[in-house]
Design a protein that fits this description.
Layout lengths: L8 H30 L9 H6 L5 E2 L2 E2 H17 L10 H37 L4 H19 L6 H22 L8 E2 L5 E2 L16 E2 L2 H12 L3 E4 L4 H10 L1 H4 L4 E3 L9 H6 L7 E4 L2 E4 L4 H8 L10 E2 L2
Parallel strand pairs: 6-7
Antiparallel strand pairs: 1-2, 3-4, 5-10, 6-8, 8-9
Helix pairs in contact: 1-3, 1-5, 3-4, 4-5, 4-6, 7-11
């Protein structure tokens, strides 16, 4: 009488574990998508997270990269758990077909996500030269999904794994390089439709990034009006979104802005004032006693402050 071979625990639990990792990945990328759309700073132990999230590499086809990551993790979650919803004793044929199909989809998805995450790790190390805990977590999630997908079942044809890895890996790499082909850190569209330059390098300690745009008379007039009505901008020298706001005004106009440095190590820091004003994110504008967090277009600031002057806002990049 032959003894029935026991099923390895990893084969029994691989799908629930993959589903759990995919869920964590989906929650992480959903949070980053919210941060990107809201222009609020990310909860992060280092200042580099906001630098990474505001860089040109954080968008693909005009949408947040985190949004595509969220869709990828949700897809992996569905692929992992779909067969578990079908009773194999009642519909064995459908269950087996779904089991095999979703394993191939899991393998292809995990390979694509791992290749893409590896490229992002390269960008962090050699282009942005920054550390982002969320990016690292996502890369570890992707690698874990790949390992579990390979070890989580018995593959009758090992060559299928290598063939899928080569094909999907090449397609992903070519697609990734193509998607980032136009990214050079030079120009990006600011909230008001004006041209701004997003920082892709580390900020100078205590200073941030140099303002590289030139102000027109309208920008200067608006800046003077904001100061006249008592408006304040609460900033942090390491904040990329604060730099985006500065670029909208231009070098000459921003000199007229009444800004309050909230971060220690900056020029004339006043964290006490920021704490008193209950500032929770950067930049935050205080206009007529009300707080307005996030980057604001010049037209928005004009409306909020009652500016009635010329609105021919047309920031130019410095030669």
């Amino acid at each position: 009488m032959s003894r029935r071979r026991s099923i390895p625990w990893i084969h029994r639990w691989s799908r629930p574990i993959i589903g759990a990792i995919a869920l964590f990945g989906a929650l992480t990328t959903a949070y980053l998508t919210y941060v990107k759309f809201s222009l609020n700073p990310a909860a992060c132990p280092t200042k580099s997270c906001d630098l990474v999230l505001s860089s040109p590499y954080a968008e693909i086809f005009g949408q947040p990269l985190a949004l595509f990551g969220f869709l990828a993790y949700v897809s992996m979650l569905i692929f992992a758990l779909a067969p578990l919803a079908i009773d194999s004793t009642k519909n064995k044929e459908l269950h087996n077909k779904l089991e095999n199909t979703t394993w191939l989809l899991l393998l292809a998805g995990a390979i694509a996500m791992t290749v893409f995450s590896s490229y992002l790790m390269y960008l962090l190390a050699f282009e942005l030269k920054a550390f982002c805990i969320y990016c690292l977590a996502s890369a570890l999630f992707s690698l874990s999904l790949l390992v579990l997908t390979i070890l989580g079942r018995t593959w009758e044809d090992i060559g299928q794994i290598f063939f899928t890895a080569i094909v999907v890996g090449m397609i992903t790499l070519i697609g990734t390089l193509g998607a980032y082909a136009g990214v050079n850190g030079a120009a990006a569209t600011a909230p008001s439709g004006q041209v701004a330059i997003r920082p892709i390098t580390q900020p100078s300690p205590g200073f941030g990034w140099e303002i590289t745009t030139i102000s027109g008379q309208s920008e200067i007039d608006l800046a003077r009006h904001l100061t006249k009505v008592g408006a304040k901008e609460y900033i942090a020298w390491w904040c990329p979104h604060c730099h985006e706001q500065k670029l909208l005004f231009g070098k000459e106009a921003y000199k007229e802005i009444n800004s309050v440095e909230c971060a220690e190590g900056g020029i004339d820091p006043r964290p006490d004032l920021c704490k008193t004003a209950k500032i929770e994110s950067f930049p935050t504008w205080e206009i007529n006693g009300k707080l307005y967090p996030g980057v604001k277009s010049l037209n928005e600031l004009a409306d909020l402050s009652g500016y009635t002057g010329d609105r021919n806002f047309a920031i130019l990049a410095a030669p």
